[in-house]
């Protein structure tokens, strides 16, 4: 799926700004058929929850309505008019005047509607988008709605981050010519100093296609005729972690000398491969340093914000981080584009977080409902999960920064049904993209002894909290547990191990000379104890701390104004641990610590 761009044959209009806004209980039936009768306006892009002071809005479970008037540019006669919603969390319905033009399930991937038949160049229309934040056992992520004694509906789910909802990414209107490019896929290879670029251009109707490859200076380095093929770039400059280099693939639909449509797809030439216990980028072993993150900022919630994006990348670079995981859902496309340009390595995750009812039983393994059953995660959940994978790969397949798919965070992997649930999803991911490794992350409840699915995946991604949820405050024990855990996996599998989460809640300004959880010193010492264990295991190919910054959660007794495992505060000030990471990571430069055993 192409990201809309203004090109010589396409125009793009942003519909961001203030929209009329109401929750469903505040307006009558079929509110799209008239001007929304509401005193409220909400900013787009942003989650709506924290924009208002009314808890009935913040905690609303169900649909909300956004509306604005849109004028189609007068020069668009004869063009196709497409409306694109960057994300409607978790389900969206789009109306142009009285007509339903699009419906989409899944809160973090874009969707479009061709509204050419409903609108006219120069004309105005009423655009209404209904967004529903409900999570059920057949959505991704899953959740459950219950009704309180006084009749209020409440939402529960098996992830800790706040269920921010609304239109958190841009809404855009764009034009394309009647015969146009619908999609482009680029797969690159490296053959010594030559880059290979296999490309495929999909068009809306049979048409003559030509492509040109331009280097970063704009010089043409390859060209070909035809909608698919392979071109070669001599003396290629590969895309490397920390040293990004991007080429343009200029695709054109031509009729003789006339260019009917043109779209430029950026790409980088790089390879990714898992060999034995190593993770190779361009044939060289890569050691991940970085974070699990969230799209989370005050007031905006999960709303995309370019200033935070730039600042977060600056801070990551400052710590010496070379990578992050899009925990726990696909991030805005702008994030991946900046990662492409800055050479930051990305593990791209679906929104499948919390496919796990064993967490209800806790670490003590108390009885809990089965995760995989007709009444819990079932065939419909898996179908929604499959669709989430399809949409993720369709959107992000061309980003050189994306080196691995992560199809689920901390699912239940030891219960009956886990293998039946995951095997087809792994197969699907590999079919959609044979070039990238596939992973999921394993929670503390998944051990090398009880796990039923690890062999299906390429990399063992472990989320481990020794010294926090286990051996709390006892870092000596935590270190031995961590090491024993790693050794267990190493003995069973010949696969790279990536620590995708480890972290400790920390209140900035709280200090102690002793190993006291919640203090800044403890967070730093916790990380160091874990690092010592990682460095003793040769199969460890990287470490991503949980979390980059403090983030908002649902209310809960072990959360103080959110999850405080951030190395930075929610307003991006460093805790002491940021300096600990900077000292370790700055010198590594993508290589494994030399002391490694
Ligand atoms: C992990 C989850 C992550 C949580 C974290 C925590 O993957 O989303 O925020 O635990 O408890 O299990 O801090």
Tell me what the structure shows:
By secondary structure, the chain is of the alpha+beta class. It is built from nine helices and 32 strands. The chain folds into three domains: 165 residues, Jelly Rolls, CATH 2.60.120.260; 87 residues, Sandwich (Immunoglobulin-like), CATH 2.60.40; 305 residues, TIM Barrel (Alpha-Beta Barrel), CATH 3.20.20.80. 18% of the residues lie in helices and 31% in strands. Strand 15 and strand 16 form a beta hairpin. It is globular. The structure holds beta-D-glucopyranuronic acid (BDP). Beta-D-glucopyranuronic acid (BDP) binds next to loops.
Our measurement of the CA-to-CA distance between the termini, rounded to an integer number of angstroms, reads 44 Å
* Outline type: globular
- Can you give the helix content as a percent range? 10-25%
Bound molecules: beta-D-glucopyranuronic acid
Indicate how many domains the architecture comprises.
Answer: 3
CATH architecture assignment name of the largest domain: Alpha-Beta Barrel
Low-confidence stretches: none
The CATH class of the largest domain is Alpha Beta
Q: Which fold name fills CATH's third level, the topology of the largest domain? A: TIM Barrel
